[in-house]
Amino acid sequence: MKKLLLIDANSVIHRSFHALPPFTGPSGEPTGALYGVASILLKLWREERPAYAAALFDRPEPTFRKKEYAAYKAQRPPAPDELISQIIEAHHLFEAFGIKTFEKPGFEADDLIATFAEQFKGEPDVQVVILTGDRDTLQMIEDDKIVVRTFNKGVSDTTIYDEKTVIEKYGFAPKFMVDYKALVGDPSDNIKGVSGVGPKTATELIKKFGTIEDIWRAVPGDPKLVARLGGREEEAKFSKKLVILERHVPVELSDISGLCITGDMLPVEAYFEKEGFATLLKRFEKGNGAAFASEADAKKKKEKPPSRQQAMF
Predict the structure, then answer these.
(1) How distant, in Å, are the alpha carbons of 70, 116, 127, 251, 288 from that of 254?
(2) Domains in the chain: ranges and CATH
(3) pLDDT tens digits for 251-286?
(4) Which residue has the higher pLDDT, 149 or 304?
(5) 68-97: per-residue pLDDT in tens?
(6) Do the Cβ atoms of 51 and 299 come closer than 8 Å?
(7) CB hemisphere CA count around 29 (13 angstroms)
């Protein structure tokens, strides 16, 4: 199937920023995070270049979650200037790869990812691949039609989560991830969850009853559940409201063809030269960035019978 790559830009940039040394470009500007993102993209392009791609960014304005819950992500320290400058510059990096960028005030990158995944999951012969540094988008997984590729260590070791992988790891289907996070909370987003309910209990409750709503419907008839969960339904439902991704962000894109990747690598080579990414430039054939091909392209080229003229030399 053709791939639609949806990149959680802020998450991937942030991970690269902390995983790599603080490189600087020819003008002295920080470039370590940009180098990491570029390396990730080259690896993906070499393994199997996507047919379509989009990079989704967070915005500095308060989101609808922040307006409802002032403590949302309040524990996070401000991003350092050297990271902010690279988040801004990353728009040009993605542009060099032919990847369109999107952002929307009031929404997070994950909401835009959810919107695009929902909008294009029905495209024939297209698989949606979400690239992210966290696991907030696991709730979007559907069979092998929508999968999540996330990092284990650094920026090179990744795992692809499909429906089967999530069930093996968590014990329940991806659609219950919102209920799980509503119960156990999410410290990274400052979502408290339900006090006294940890991962083991949450998993047991979901496997036995299902959603938050199903669990609390069972509470009145079970003295043990009353003792453990009584009076906590509203905090569970509020936490679930915060973790559910918005799948209908108003964006101006009606056709997947608007995300088409041309495959022209010359702008990438030019960008690398500008930023001084000498090591990455070595991955191109000398003097011809367009010759950087995916392994699939190389295999096709290798298998193609030589022409009569080629066979003579």
Answers:
(1) 34, 10, 18, 8, 35
(2) 2-168+245-266 (3.40.50.1010), 174-243 (1.10.150.20)
(3) 988 899 999 998 889 999 999 999 999 999 998 765
(4) 149
(5) 999 999 988 899 999 999 999 999 999 999
(6) no
(7) 18
